């Protein structure tokens, strides 16, 4: 679907980052050639087409829209072609024998062969320059008397020409290979994406696995394609070098060749070992990140429990284990990385010592060609480990995608037309399960699909379901948790396996999932979902879904961009947007899976009356709900229990039957109106005063010192525009802070070790030159033995000296590897622990204004880069740049006249880096942002498959993904081409530098400079040319990785601790508070400075042991009262006294440890049952069992494997919501607090569990002061007194009976509204 002429195209207003937004339509449709397609062969080879781009970027004049992506590199072309090839493969050999590897090779076969041919030419050029021409030059200078001027000049220019030719061929190889890799990468993830978009939403593949295949595996394939073809010609170079060195030297040259082979095998083995160690460390890393995520997601509750230290210690312990494994891997990786620069020297030492020990002839003209040939093999040796690792990982990724492509969806079973023309849905004896049964096994039915962890059920989830729903009717579906309500909805979406019976649906379907799905786009995009905008209908839908007030709060109204699954919205806002999407779609059948659960009572009543009953009047609606007060307004009621239809009929008929339904309704009426879940994420009263989103510019990923987006900012720019505006280089302050984290002395010592290692290596080559300069020594030899090292009487001295030099170098090298890893991991660990301490100690205002995803990214991706990638690239950068500096020094010592060329080289290189390095960093940052946007959309689509497929919007989201994919591909190409452009300039400069050195070598008399010294200078300058590309790349990579350090430092330096965290003005007794009286004296509170007051001059005294109900409309300040009591926010004025003690004079940990809270949403952490109840191990097993018995959880825990030591995962694993809430109640009992806060404690459970919780609380907290915050007015009728809040002020405070008797009181009005139900 190309979107041309499609009215749904209006929906695609979401643009990628500004740098490519205007060109995307042309990129996708291919209506014009890209700049790269119009580039000539010479321009492509020399990268000159990038020169105006780099200059324009430096002058801030570049219009990125002029750099459109070629259609040949786009998702459309490559995705369709690879899809066709895969289908042909499956048709030809069948799914079992189909090979995705074979398809990928066929997909880009010609380009890969072309690149391989170019790499063979590069290998030959490398050999000719370093071997043949170098040998001829040495022969020329040794036989100086017979040499001619023109031959010497020709050799000099020939060497420079070969070097420049090699640079151009290498550049051409990269240019072609980049586009080859991009096409394979694009085709790879488009092939996977098309499979994802067609999968069932409850397939065996998780969203994380889907995203991993598309992102991580495709990137590994791209890297493998880049490096793989470069190392393939190495065997050819090895063979040619073996023959040539044996021809020049003798058979002893094979010793050096054998050492290279040994080193290659060693590198491959060590690389595989590193990979296995990293794989072993991956679960530990995942555990640390998961625990950190739990900490951040539940930070408010953790602060109230005073469990910060528990989580910090747990994370630190996991980090210690992780660090040990990563240090082993890093040490081996560092050894591998340092082998390459020193392998030629070891090969040279072994060859020369054996050769001279055997008495075979060797002199300068035969020795130095061998040295340069061995050195040229370093080019491949340094790339082998990375290439082997990437190719192996890419092969695994291809295998994963291959298995993924062969997954089969459930067979279609829904009949799209009913026998009864008036019926919308007909189910006849339908039995359905989540998987095809293989054997009978007892299983637990499931309703909450979001928290399910496996599809191992083999018994049917729904059994013998039979009902008929007439068109235009409203069907209410109710039942206890686990009765099969959500499964019924999914069966109508064709997401289950039909075992028997039939399911018929007549008409189009709209679906509202139990967990609202929000995708990457604006609010309006999320509502329209590709439909054309009808402003009148849109306004009616917005009104019926009660979204106008929310749009006024959002920074850009309905044009606000929602990223990271809509993190700017509360759960209720998300659900209402999801409902608005369904209503706007104008479908025939509406499947609503408990959409009212995330809304408070007034909003829920408005939604039911205005949206479901009026806006959807005449539509067929199936409403799953726990809000039983709405059942009487439904045309029909379906009661489910344990996957079967227990009762069906009208509300009145079922009430008269006095069955299970009547029992539920009576219990519901007796135990008050069903509680509603308060909208979460941030409190409503906070939202009302925020004036624009919850993004904190100081800690957002986009950086600091940037103004917030203006009101006319394009929606697509809201999350990414500031990132592009950031400075493009990391400051020296960041390097300094990294060294401080490692220790200044340790950092300086490591640098000295690097310098010492470089000097020792230079001295080793200098020793060779000294040995060659000494020639045959002072002894009398024949003319044939002139300059023969084997004839030197001091041969043993030179051999031992050479061996001692190399041994010293290897010793320093091992010391460097060990100490360097210790120092870098000390730095990363210091940064991690400092970040953890700063974040944990930050006040709640920090978490309310900072996206949790950005903080978690610092503990996951950023930390991984600081642990592994930064030390690796920093090691390479220091090694290569010190070697380059040493080469310049050697040439200056041998030829002082080289001072001017070296000065010119350094000046031009410094200018290039100063002028253009920032541009490449900026391009890499832009690529990172567009990659994150693409991954975010991919994740969002994987999580919303049910909604996308129900609304038949697969083509729309495929087009959106293609846009973002093409944008990322464009940035990826530009960043790599920018890096290659800078590398080409540097390589060309270094290649040109060989000309003056070659001329000096040839035309400076041997009487002035010995031929051995000349050969040393020329061989060193050739090495500089071969390493110049790696020098630039490691420099760029190191600076990019330091961005992670910069981000972490922003949090470490920017976070402030909670006020008075370390202060304790008054020492309170251990048994404080003895009574539990709470007094608010002229108390005022605001969430942050410059925000309005949310609690205004409260004057309240709560007696010891009193049961107080706190009620009020949404936004009245109820949650703020809890925040004040726990000092999550410090008072703006006034004070709070507990038993006469001002809580601001008590240490925060002391205060919070004396209070208990039972939250609205029950939270259980990953760990044992005992850990969840008593993380400090302060209570005996008997005390814990006693608490569990009081909360009716003893039998449940006793049945678990391990009992108190049973592991709980995924927020309680298989425990129901009610059981989790009872666990939280047990936790509060063990704290034995005099003051207990109940925050909508029974809002998420069914009536039966609610009754158990109420009984347990009444018995357990008989002698405690209990503050019950609730929307359920009826639940506080038995309280001693009721506190009614409105706009942060106390409007009523008395016994509930007294307030009820006053018809004008706000309490009476709230009670009347709660009991009224739908009209």
UniProtKB/TrEMBL annotation:
| Subcellular location as annotated | Endomembrane system
Q: Which family does it belong to?
A: Belongs to the ABC transporter superfamily. ABCC family. Conjugate transporter (TC 3.A.1.208) subfamily.
CDD domains assigned to the protein according to its UniProt record, in alphabetical order: ABCC_MRP_domain1, ABCC_MRP_domain2
Taxonomic lineage of the native organism: Eukaryota, Metazoa, Chordata, Craniata, Vertebrata
Domain ABC transmembrane type-1: start-end pairs: 112-393, 752-1013
Against InterPro entries, the record matches this protein to: AAA+_ATPase, ABC1_TM_dom, ABC1_TM_sf, ABC_transporter-like_ATP-bd, ABC_transporter-like_CS, ABC_transporter_C-like, P-loop_NTPase
> According to its record, how does it sit in the membrane?
Multi-pass membrane protein
UniProt KW keywords: ATP-binding, Membrane, Nucleotide-binding, Repeat, Transmembrane, Transmembrane helix, Transport
- Database matches in PANTHER family: ATP-BINDING CASSETTE SUB-FAMILY C, ATP-BINDING CASSETTE SUB-FAMILY C MEMBER 12
In this chain, the stretch annotated as Disordered covers 1-28
Sequence ranges of Basic and acidic residues compositional bias: 1-13
GO cellular component term, pick one: membrane
Membrane spanning residue stretches: 112-134, 154-176, 221-245, 251-270, 331-354, 366-392, 741-768, 796-815, 878-897
Q: What is its main location?
A: membrane
**Sequence ranges assigned to domain ABC transporter in this UniProt record:** 445-667, 1078-1312
Q: Which Pfam families match?
A: ABC_membrane, ABC_tran
Q: Which organism is it from?
A: Xyrichtys novacula
Q: Which GO MF terms does the UniProt record name?
A: ABC-type transporter activity; ATP binding; ATP hydrolysis activity
Protein name, as recorded:
Multidrug resistance-associated protein 9-like
């Amino acid at each position: 679907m190309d979107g041309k002429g499609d009215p749904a195209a209006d929906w695609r207003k979401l643009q990628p980052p500004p740098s490519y937004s205007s060109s995307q339509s042309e990129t996708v449709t291919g209506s014009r050639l890209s700049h790269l397609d119009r580039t000539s062969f010479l321009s492509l080879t020399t990268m000159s087409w990038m020169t105006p781009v780099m200059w324009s970027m430096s002058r801030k004049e570049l219009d990125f829209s002029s750099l459109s992506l070629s259609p040949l590199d786009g998702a459309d072309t490559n995705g369709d072609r690879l899809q066709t090839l895969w289908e042909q493969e499956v048709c030809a050999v069948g799914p079992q024998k189909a090979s995705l590897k074979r398809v990928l090779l066929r997909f880009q076969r010609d380009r890969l062969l072309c690149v391989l041919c170019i790499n063979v030419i590069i290998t030959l050029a490398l050999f000719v320059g370093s071997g043949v021409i170098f040998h001829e030059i040495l022969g020329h200078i040794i036989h100086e008397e017979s040499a001619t001027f023109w031959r010497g000049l020709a050799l000099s220019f020939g060497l420079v020409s070969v070097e420049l030719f090699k640079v151009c061929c290498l550049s051409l190889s990269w240019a072609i290979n980049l586009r080859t890799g991009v096409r394979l990468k694009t085709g790879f993830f488009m092939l996977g994406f098309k499979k994802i978009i067609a999968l069932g939403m409850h397939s065996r593949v998780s969203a994380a696995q889907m995203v991993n295949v598309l992102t991580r595996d495709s990137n590994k394939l791209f890297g493998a394609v880049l490096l793989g073809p470069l190392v393939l010609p190495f065997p050819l170079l090895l063979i040619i070098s073996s023959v040539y060195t044996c021809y020049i030297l003798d058979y002893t040259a094979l010793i050096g060749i054998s050492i290279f082979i040994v080193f290659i095998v060693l590198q491959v083995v060590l690389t595989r070992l590193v990979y296995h160690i990293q794989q072993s460390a991956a679960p530990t890393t995942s555990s640390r990140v998961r625990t950190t995520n739990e900490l951040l997601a539940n930070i408010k509750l953790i602060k109230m429990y005073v469990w910060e230290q528990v989580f910090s210690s747990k994370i630190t312990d996991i980090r210690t284990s992780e660090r040990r494994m990563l240090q082993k891997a890093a040490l081996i990786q560092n050894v591998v990385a340092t082998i390459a620069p020193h392998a030629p020297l070891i090969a040279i030492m072994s060859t020369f010592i054996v050769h001279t020990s055997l008495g075979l002839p060797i002199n300068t003209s035969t020795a130095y060609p061998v040295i340069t040939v061995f050195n040229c093999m370093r080019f491949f040796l340094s790339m082998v480990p990375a290439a082997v690792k990437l190719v192996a990982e890419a092969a695994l990724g291809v295998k994963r995608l291959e298995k993924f492509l062969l997954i089969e969806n459930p067979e279609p079973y829904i009949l799209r037309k009913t026998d009864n023309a008036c019926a919308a849905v007909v189910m006849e004896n339908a039995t359905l399960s989540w998987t095809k049964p293989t054997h009978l096994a007892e299983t637990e039915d499931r309703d909450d699909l979001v928290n399910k962890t496996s599809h191992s059920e083999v018994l049917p989830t729904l059994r013998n379901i039979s009902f008929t729903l007439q068109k235009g009717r409203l069907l209410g579906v109710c039942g206890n948790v686990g009765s099969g309500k959500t499964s019924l909805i999914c069966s109508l979406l064709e997401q289950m396996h039909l075992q028997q019976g039939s399911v018929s649906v007549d008409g189009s379907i709209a679906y509202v999932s139990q967990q609202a799905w929000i995708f990457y786009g604006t609010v309006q995009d999320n509502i329209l979902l590709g439909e054309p905008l009808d402003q009148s209908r849109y306004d009616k839908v917005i009104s019926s879904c009660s979204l106008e007030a929310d749009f006024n709060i959002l920074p850009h109204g309905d044009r606000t961009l929602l990223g990271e699954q809509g993190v700017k919205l509360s759960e209720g806002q998300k659900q209402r947007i999801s409902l608005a999407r369904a209503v706007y779609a104008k479908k025939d059948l509406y499947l609503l899976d408990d959409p009212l659960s995330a809304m408070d009572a007034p909003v829920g009543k408005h939604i039911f009356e205005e949206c479901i009953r009026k806006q959807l009047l005449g539509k067929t609606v199936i409403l799953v709900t726990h809000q039983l007060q709405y059942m009487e307004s439904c045309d029909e009621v379906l009661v489910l229990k344990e996957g079967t239809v227990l009762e069906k009929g009208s509300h009145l008929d079922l009430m008269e039957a006095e069955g299970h339904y009547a029992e539920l309704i009576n219990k519901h009426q007796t135990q008050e109106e069903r509680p509603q879940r308060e909208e979460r994420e941030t409190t409503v009263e906070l939202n009302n005063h925020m004036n624009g989103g919850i993004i904190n510019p100081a800690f957002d990923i986009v950086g600091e010192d940037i103004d917030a987006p203006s009101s006319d900012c394009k929606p697509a720019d809201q999350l990414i525009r500031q990132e592009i505006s950031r400075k493009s280089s990391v400051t020296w302050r960041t390097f300094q802070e990294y060294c401080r984290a490692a220790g200044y002395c340790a950092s300086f010592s490591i640098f000295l070790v690097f310098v010492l290692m470089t000097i020792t290596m230079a001295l080793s080559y200098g020793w060779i030159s000294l040995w060659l300069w000494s020639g045959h020594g002072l002894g009398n030899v024949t003319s044939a033995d002139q300059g023969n090292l084997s004839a030197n009487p001091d041969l043993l001295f030179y051999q031992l000296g050479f061996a001692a030099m190399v041994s010293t170098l290897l010793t320093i090298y091992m010391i460097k590897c060990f100490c360097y890893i210790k120092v870098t991991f000390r730095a990363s660990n210091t940064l991690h622990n400092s970040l953890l301490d700063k974040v944990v100690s930050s006040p709640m205002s920090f978490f309310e204004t900072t996206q949790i995803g950005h903080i978690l990214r610092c503990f996951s991706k950023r930390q991984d880069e600081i642990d592994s990638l930064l030390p690796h690239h920093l090691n390479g950068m220091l090694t290569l740049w010190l070697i380059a500096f040493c080469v310049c020094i050697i040439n200056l010592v041998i030829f002082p006249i080289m001072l001017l060329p070296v000065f010119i080289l350094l000046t031009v290189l410094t200018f290039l880096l100063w002028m253009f390095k920032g541009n490449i960093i900026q391009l890499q940052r832009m690529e990172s942002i567009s990659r994150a946007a693409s991954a975010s959309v991919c994740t969002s689509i994987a999580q919303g498959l049910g909604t996308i497929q129900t609304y038949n919007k697969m083509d729309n989201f495929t087009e959106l993904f293609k846009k973002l994919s093409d944008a990322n591909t464009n940035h990826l190409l530009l960043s790599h081409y920018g890096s290659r452009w800078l590398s080409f300039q540097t390589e060309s400069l270094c290649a040109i530098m060989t000309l003056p050195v070659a001329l000096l070598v040839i035309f400076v008399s041997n009487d002035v400079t010995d031929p051995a010294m000349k050969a040393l200078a020329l061989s060193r300058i050739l090495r500089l040319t071969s390493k110049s590309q790696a020098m630039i790349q490691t420099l760029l990579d190191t600076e990019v990785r330091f961005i992670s350090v910069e981000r972490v430092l922003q949090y470490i330096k920017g976070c402030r601790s909670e006020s008075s965290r370390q202060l304790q003005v008054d020492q309170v007794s251990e048994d404080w508070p003895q009574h539990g009286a709470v007094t608010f004296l002229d108390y005022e509170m605001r969430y942050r400075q410059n925000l309005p007051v949310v609690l205004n001059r409260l004057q309240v005294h709560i007696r010891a042991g009193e049961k107080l109900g706190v009620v009020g409309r949404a936004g009245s300040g109820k949650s703020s009262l809890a925040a004040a009591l726990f000092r999550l926010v410090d008072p703006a004025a006034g004070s709070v006294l507990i038993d006469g003690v001002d809580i601001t004079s008590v240490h925060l940990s002391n205060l919070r440890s004396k209070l208990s809270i039972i939250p609205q949403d029950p939270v259980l952490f990953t760990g044992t049952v005992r850990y969840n109840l008593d993380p400090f191990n302060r209570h005996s097993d008997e005390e814990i069992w006693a608490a569990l018995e009081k909360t009716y959880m003893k039998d449940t825990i006793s049945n678990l494997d391990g009992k108190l030591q049973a592991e709980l995962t995924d927020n309680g694993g298989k425990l129901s919501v009610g059981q989790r809430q009872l666990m939280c109640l047990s936790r509060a009992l063990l704290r034995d607090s005099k003051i207990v806060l109940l925050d909508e404690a029974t809002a998420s459970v069914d009536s039966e569990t609610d009754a158990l919780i109420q009984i347990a609380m009444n018995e357990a907290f008989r002698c405690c002061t209990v503050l019950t915050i609730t929307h359920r007015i009826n639940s506080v009728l038995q309280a001693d007194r009721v506190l009614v809040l409105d706009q942060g002020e106390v409007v009523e405070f008395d016994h509930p009976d007294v307030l009820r008797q006053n018809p004008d009181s706000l309490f009476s009005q709230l009670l009347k509204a709660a009991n009224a139900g739908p009209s």
